[in-house]
Amino acid sequence: MKPQEQSCPFCGARHCCFLHAVYERDLIILKHGIPVVLNLTVLRLICSSCHHTHAFLPAYLIPYGSYSLFFILKVLRLYFLHSLTIRQLCERFSIAVSTLYAWIRLFQQQKILWLGILKHASTSPFDFLSLLFDSDSFLEDFFHLAKVSFLQPFRITARSRLP
Length: 163
Fold this sequence. Notes:
Blueprint: E1 17-31, E2 34-47, E3 53-56, H1 69-81, H2 86-93, H3 97-115, H4 117-122, H5 125-134, H6 138-146
Antiparallel strand pairs: 1-2, 2-3
């Protein structure tokens, strides 16, 4: 989707977002199972309606995070399959134990948010991960429901609008 076709995430105005600036950021991805750091250029847009700026991020980028969505989902999948120990997972993917536990906690919270309490109780984390990979619209639908990207930690501010 082109930047000018985006709706403003703040006011919802359509076709009002225009290029404002760019910035560089690192992204950690998996290439052949090995963590690799890429440097990306991110577009910053401004809404001509409300004058708020926001980043135009591809779906695989988690706002304020360094790891790609698919990197985190791969690690979580291996964790829930119990194919590796915590130590083995962290060593293999060069992540801290605290990072892994933060991802697990956030995944469980957002799984409940998406599925609801009853469906969450009867859906294994592995089945939920499979559902994510089979869905074309999950990331967009989750953003509209939660007002944050999937696996983006909630940041509570004076302007937060939590579900």
